[in-house]
């Protein structure tokens, strides 16, 4: 299960993480966000130890998405060494999500 990260825990859980972190910015009402959730769960298991997958609910945590310029959801941002390394906006098939992760790990 992907870990839920909040505005309060983002710095510790993502920016100070020793491994790359894929942050899924999403909301309950977002159909495309829900459609990619199972793929992200599978990929979090596949890349276990190499990449952590976390979720930020933009409705409950408005500060973090605005700090990183998130305008549409789902937005996936891979953070490495405390900085955004790559961004993917919109829903995509699992194969595309996997390629996105592999390219930026």
In words, what does this structure look like?
The mean pLDDT is 97. A five-stranded mixed β-sheet has the order 1-3-2-4-5, covered by helices on one side. It is of the alpha/beta class and 105 residues long. The chain has helices at residues 10-15, 31-46, 63-67, 94-104; strands at 3-4, 21-26, 52-57, 75-80, 83-89. The protein is globular and about 30 Å long.
Number of extended strands: 5
- Quickly count the helices: 4
Give the rounded overall mean pLDDT: 97
User: Structural class, from helix and strand content?
Assistant: alpha/beta
End-to-end gap: 20 Å
Q: Would you list the SSEs in sequence order as H and E? A: EHEHEHEEH
Q: How would you describe the shape? A: globular
Strand arrangement, largest sheet?
1-3-2-4-5
Short description:
The protein is an alpha/beta fold and 105 residues long. It is 36% helix and 26% strand. It starts with a strand and ends with a helix.
What attributes characterize this protein structure?
five-stranded mixed sheet, 36% helix, alpha/beta, 105 residues
Question: Would you spell out the secondary-structure blueprint of this structure?
Answer:
Layout: E1 3-4, H1 10-15, E2 21-26, H2 31-46, E3 52-57, H3 63-67, E4 75-80, E5 83-89, H4 94-104
Parallel strand pairs: 1-3, 2-3
Antiparallel strand pairs: 2-4, 4-5
